[in-house]
Every structure is written in structure tokens, then in C-alpha cells.
Amino acid sequence: IFTLLGAKPDAQALPHLARWYTHIASLGDAVSSLKAAEVPAPAAAEEAAEEDEDVDLFGSDDEVDEEAEKVKAQRLAEYAAKKASKGPGPAAKTTITFDIKPWEAETDLVELEKMVKGIEMDGLVWAQAGKLVDIAFGIKKLQINAVIEDAKIASTEDITDVIEAFEDHVQSVDILAMQKI
């Protein structure tokens, strides 16, 4: 390109090209020793394009490899048999910490804990003891843990709705923490 330009381009019209030309010209004789890049012949480019047309990158050919289909069906059958022989895996469980806030400071939280532990659902196990946590001004809240089986209890809202049904004692129920076991 340098040799094709012959002279420095107008710096006003093409400032970047003029700067490049000045830079290359500063190299002096080293520029003449550089070889021009080889350009492939047009016939070779056409042959390469024809070869590319034969390649189907997305696998949309309609040919079905029967051998591959047999191997695939055999592997699927082996996988199904292996999975059936293992039996059901361990039940997925979640540990939940409920944060139960009373209506007032005089609410008996020990009695409330007994009421909460009295809730029985299939797949629900309460922790041995709850914890009384200070909120402010002598008011405490009850924190209690439970373990649930995910397959048996559809939603934690089922449990919180039952706890909130103790309207005389419970102001609100929040989930403080959840952890898969």
C-alpha cells in the first residue's frame, strides 16, 4: 500500500493516512525489503468455497445412522435399568428457622412454643427447643427450627399459615433462614 500511494496524502483530507505514511516513510530502506502478501488465486478460492458448501455445521442432513440409533437405544435401556435398580434416593430435606413475633411483651412464649410444636404435618419435624431472642424494650420473639421433607410439604406458607392462626399470640411469622440438607 505504501508503494501504491507513491506520495504523502493530504493531511487535511486524510489525517490518519498521512500520519501512517509518515511513520512508514521514517523506516527508510527497511520498507523496500518487506515482501508483499501473497494473494490466493481466484480458482483456489472458488474450490475452497465449494468444499465449504458440503459441510453441514448444524447437522440438518436427513440421513439416519441406524447403527448410532441402535447404540443410543441400548444405552438408554441400560441407564433406565441402572436407575431402577438403585431405588429411590434419599429424601430432599430443608432446615428452616422460623421467627415468630408476639403481639405484646406479656405473651407467654413458652406456651406459644408448645402450641407451635403441637402442629403436626406429614414431613415436618420440630427442633427440640426454641430460642427466645430480645427484640427491644423487654419484648422477645421466638425462634424455632424445623426440618421438612420437600416432597411432602409443598410450601413453607402452609406452615406459616397454621402458626399465624394463633391470632391471640402471634403477630407475624418470618422465615429467618433456609438450608437444604
Automatic annotation (TrEMBL):
Keywords: Elongation factor, Protein biosynthesis
Highest taxon in the source lineage: Eukaryota
Name of this protein: Translation elongation factor 1 beta
Species whose genome carries this gene: Coemansia helicoidea
